[in-house]
Amino acid sequence: MEDKGITEEKTNNIPPEEIFQIFDKVFKKVITLSTRAVINLINGLFDTDYPLDSTITYNWTEFEDDNLKKILADTIITINGKYAYHLEAQMEKDNSIVFRVFEYGYGHANRSHEIRDGRYVLRFPRPVVIYLYYEGTVPDEYVLTLEFDEGQGVYEYKVPVLKLPEITAQELSERKLVVLIPFHVLKLRYALKKKNQDLAQLQSYIVNVIIGCINENVRLGNITIEDALKLKRYLRKLCDYLSRHYEELKGMNDMTDESFMTDIDIMCEEHEKAMAEKDVQLAEKDVQLAEQSSQLAEQSSQLAEQSSQLAEQKNHLIAATKALIAQGMSEEEARSITNVSLE
Fold first, then answer.
1. Does the pTM exceed 0.85?
2. How many Cβ atoms sit within 10 Å of the Cβ of residue 306?
């Protein structure tokens, strides 16, 4: 799986607002996939090592824009009820983003403020800005300097930046950031504008690189089959939006529809086959358990019958011992004959 034929350079035109919205919605979707996928994302972004069965809590905050439309302002994820991470996705260069990240971080810290040993504590989440798309250049890190009067000092609030257009599919797999791979379709328009690729090459890129990356990560166990199907669904939605908004990408969906459907059908078939095999295995185990239960029941019945026979034999011997004693034999002599105790 290689990124062949597609350049890594950035586009020169910013997509319209509706494109921003669909990419934002898809971003919110991909970070709410399976626990396995999201924990791998957090580990890959922040170089942590949380177990894949860790618990995840989403801290969504809403605010209203100038048109009184509610939008999700931030995505703060808490792992194991303690460690918080702030993910902010961007579609264009924004020099004010560091102020918003700080504001959202402060809001989260203030909602969960603590008092430790008489000291008041605000614990900020660890932030990252993820550029899904941008033109020009963006910094590797944003730094917000907090200056305090009265000699309290200066503090630098640092926000690292992930530049998705500069990360190849292979690198995404290595860092287990595969949930971000659908956004690689943003490379396609720039490739066509430079006229160094045609639609056939773009179709090949989608099928062999993007979808190939998703399939590979299923095999590696980084995401579930359900995750893969959702990622492909989101990928197709993004391709549809790009195709409808950019003249040079019209026809892309017609060329990729069959590949999408064939691939999704194969994934579904493999998933159903795996589930059917599990059902057969479970049925076989049920039969084995039923046979074992039947054998145990039969053994219990045999033991009960043997116990009943032994009890009956003992009663006969006790009766015989008493009869001998009644005939004038001492108890000791009678017991030596029947070998049973009258106690």
1. no
2. 10
